[in-house]
Design brief:
Layout: E1 6-12, H1 18-31, E2 36-40, H2 46-56, H3 65-89, E3 93-97, H4 100-110, H5 115-121, E4 133-138, H6 141-148, H7 163-179, E5 184-188, H8 193-208
Length: 212
């Protein structure tokens, strides 16, 4: 099994279980002797976490979609330079809870922004490093929102969006996956946690062994 730098991201709608699955994969890889680093977006750095607070605060109801996109981009740019690049350079496997595909799915499809505009006009919002592998946990929107409705601390600004928004996000993710089948692997998230994890492990092991 390859044990040097690899960038793996986890994507999906609210309540899909990506954080749980990323943590389980991290534990497994560490037991196998692989050097792993976990991080998240927005956030991952002190600056990024402050931006995260602004982005997800339900009180910021008047935030424009352009401001939202640029704030995600600012967090990502700092994250790449401060955390992701050094981790990959040192040979670690970086596991990231959300990355650039979230910007396209949420701000592009969810907010009805022109995806081609985001790609051309705001490349920094999409990051300067592309993941080697992306795990897309796909789940019915109603099921996902049901999972998070009683989340401790309440729901954040994005989670509180109307169901139509979340449906657009899911459809956007599936379109992105169709366009990047080599990188984005869809895993159905309506199964038991251990069944989902087994499928993810199989995908990652194939990647680490150079079979993908």
């Amino acid at each position: 099994m390859k044990k040097t730098g690899l960038f793996i991201t986890f994507e999906g709608i609210e309540g899909c279980g990506k954080t749980t699955q990323m943590n389980l994969l991290s534990d497994y890889l560490k037991k196998e002797g692989v050097s792993v680093f976990k991080t998240r977006e927005p956030g991952g750095t002190k600056i990024g976490e402050k931006i995260r607070e602004i982005l997800l605060n339900p009180d910021n109801k008047k935030m424009s979609k352009e401001t939202e996109m640029l704030l995600y981009g600012a967090s990502r740019t700092q994250h790449i330079e401060e955390i992701i690049k050094p981790a990959l350079k040192s040979g670690k496997i970086a596991l990231c809870d959300r990355y650039a595909d979230s910007t396209l799915a949420y701000q592009g499809f969810g907010r009805n922004m022109d995806v081609s505009f985001i790609k051309k006009a705001c490349p920094l919002s999409l990051g300067t490093i592309q993941p080697d592998l992306t795990i897309l946990l796909d789940l019915d929107v109603k099921a996902g929102l049901e999972r998070i409705k009683n989340r401790k601390g309440g729901n954040d600004r994005i989670e509180k969006e109307k169901i139509a928004f979340h449906n657009r996000v899911r459809k956007g993710y599936l379109k992105l996956a169709k366009a990047s089948r080599g990188r984005i692997k869809i895993v159905k998230a309506d199964k038991k946690i251990d069944e989902i994890q087994k499928e993810i492990k199989d995908i990652v092991i194939r990647k680490l062994c150079g079979k993908e």
